[in-house]
Amino acid sequence: MLVTGLEILKKAREEGYGVGAFNTNNMEITQAILEASEAKRSPVILAMSEGAIKYGGGYLARMVIEAARDARVPVAVHLDHGSSYEAVLRALRLGFTSVMIDKSGEDFETNVAETKRVVAAARAVGVSVEAEIGKLAGVEEHVAVDEKDALLTNPREAQIFAERTGIDFLAVAIGTSHGPYKGKGRPFIDHARLKEIAELLPGMPLVLHGASGVPQELVERINRAGGNLKGAQGIHPDDIRLAIQGGISKINTDTDLRLAFTAAVREVLMEKPEIFDPRKILGPAREEMKRVVMERIELFGSAGRA
Ligand SMILES: [Zn+2]
Questions:
Q1: 3-class secondary structure per residue, 56-80
Q2: What is the maximum alpha-carbon separation in the chain?
Q3: What gap in Å lies between CA 53 and CA 99, rounded to an integer?
Q4: Are 171 and 131 within 8 A, CB to CB?
C-alpha cells in the first residue's frame, strides 16, 4: 500500500529502528525491493532521483507507484535529491508521496527559503518533505578538522532550520559520502554530532545518505568477472546500528543494489555465453538484489514492522 514517507518514518523514529530508502530506476530493481520487503514484512521507501525519472520517463515513475500500491507492506515513493521547486512539482504531479528538496549547496537563508516553498506545496497535497543541511562531499582523512566541521551539519543550525522550514525529516551530513569510494580506512562517522542533533530535534526522523555497505564479496565477484572496482568500500554495519540508535530513521542505499546487479549480470554473461534472453540475464540480477535488500532490512531492524 502507498503511504507517505512520514507515516513510515515517524513510527520508525519512535520505536528506534531504521527503514531503507532504496533507489530504483527499472522494473527489476523495483521488484527486488518490494519482494524483499514483503518477504521480511518491512515498510520500505522506493526512491527515484530526477535522473532516474528522466531515464525511465513519467512512465517508469507511474509503474513504480503502481507497484507500491499493489505491495502488501507500507511503501512510500520518494523523490531523491530534488534540485528545484519545479522538480518537486513534477514529482507531486506524478503521485510521489514523499519528496526531498536538496538546497544544501546554497547558503543557509536560500536553503531555508527554497525548502519552505516546497513544504507549502507538498503539505497542500499531503506529501512529506525531506531537506538537507550540511554538505555530503566526500569527507576525506586529509581534510583538516575545522574544514570537516564546516562541511558537517551544525546541530544548532539544524534545529533552527527544522523549526523555520517545517520539514518532516532531515538529512544530516555526519561523515558519509555518496558512491562506493569513501576514502582510506574505515569511513569516519561523527556519532557524537548525530547524538547532539537528535537531542535538539526530538521525534524528528533523521536521514543518512551515502550509507551503502559495499559488500566486499560483491566487489570481488565483480572484479573476478571482468570488472574493475578498486578500493571500493562502504559503511560498516556497526556504524549503521549505532547511527540508528542515535536517531537515524531513513537509510539510503543505492550502491549496494548496483553492485549486486552488476555482479549477477557479469557472472551470468561470463558463465553462460549461449544465453541472449534478457529475462535470463536480468532475472538472476533481480534475485541478487533481493538478497541484498533482505540483508539490509535485517540490519536496519525494520523486519516484521509492517
Ligand atoms: Zn543522497
A1: HHHHHHHHHHHHHHHCCCCEEEEEE
A2: 60
A3: 13
A4: yes
Helix (H, G, I), strand (E, B) or coil at 231: coil
306 within a domain of the structure (yes/no): no
Does a structural domain hold residue 26? yes
**Cell output for 294:** 533482505
Instruction: Report d(CA 101, CA 82) in Å as an integer.
Output: 5
Q: Cα–Cα distance between 215 and 233 in angstroms, integer?
A: 7
In the reported structure, the alpha carbon of residue 280 is separated from the centroid of ligand 1 by a whole-number distance in angstroms of 31
Ligand 1 centroid – CA 123 distance (Å): 22
101 in a structural domain: yes
Pairing of the two strands 75-82 and 98-101: parallel
Give the structural domain span for 37.
Answer: 5-300
The residue written with cell numbers 531555508 in the block is 112
Rounded to whole angstroms, the Cα distance separating 11 from 14 reads: 5
CB 262 within 8 A of CB 222: yes
The pLDDT of 24-33, averaged and rounded, is 98
> Annotated active-site positions, please?
80
Would you say residue 138 has pLDDT above 60? Answer: no
Distance (angstroms) between ligand 1 centre and the Cα of 52 equals: 13
What separation in Å is there between the alpha carbon of 50 and the centre of ligand 1?
A: 12
Domain count, the chain: 1
Give the separation between CA 17 and CA 179, rounded to whole angstroms: 24
187-190: list long-range contacts, CB under 8 Å, 24+ apart. 187/233, 187/234, 187/235, 187/236, 187/239, 188/139, 188/141, 189/235, 189/239, 189/242, 189/243, 190/152
CATH of the domain at 20: 3.20.20.70
> 251 C-alpha to center of ligand 1: Å?
10
Contact 212, 168 (CB under 8 A): no
Lowest mean pLDDT among 132-141, 228-237, 254-263, 278-287: 132-141
